[in-house]
Write a structure and sequence with these properties.
By secondary structure, this protein is α+β, with helices and mostly antiparallel strands. The chain is 23% helix and 27% strand. The strands form two sheets. It has a three-stranded antiparallel beta sheet. A two-stranded antiparallel ribbon has the order 2-3. A hairpin with a 2-residue loop joins strand 4 and strand 5. The longest helix has 19 residues.
Length: 81
């Protein structure tokens, strides 16, 4: 499946920082030197259907976690056994 959308809605100006077009947004430092995540695709509209991007990411994560649990998948880091 491709990554084509009819319209993408974001909270930040992508001309100032293209990373706000990432599905999860971009990391930014506040004036108080705190790290916050800003932007990100808020909604995607494809074929007239509005999708909540953050909910889609959460749904996919839940599906992947469920499948990993079913299959007993365990990620093993190199050198850590």
């Amino acid at each position: 499946m491709g990554k084509l959308a009819d319209l993408v809605i974001v909270e930040e100006n992508p001309l100032m920082n293209l990373k706000v077009l990432y599905g999860t947004g971009a990391i930014k430092l506040t004036e108080d030197n705190e790290v916050v995540r800003v932007g990100g695709v808020k909604y995607t509209i494809k074929d007239g259907i509005v999708y909540d991007a953050k909910q889609l990411l959460a749904d996919v994560k839940a599906m992947v976690d469920e499948k990993k649990a079913e299959e007993g998948f365990e990620l093993k880091q190199p050198g850590m056994e």
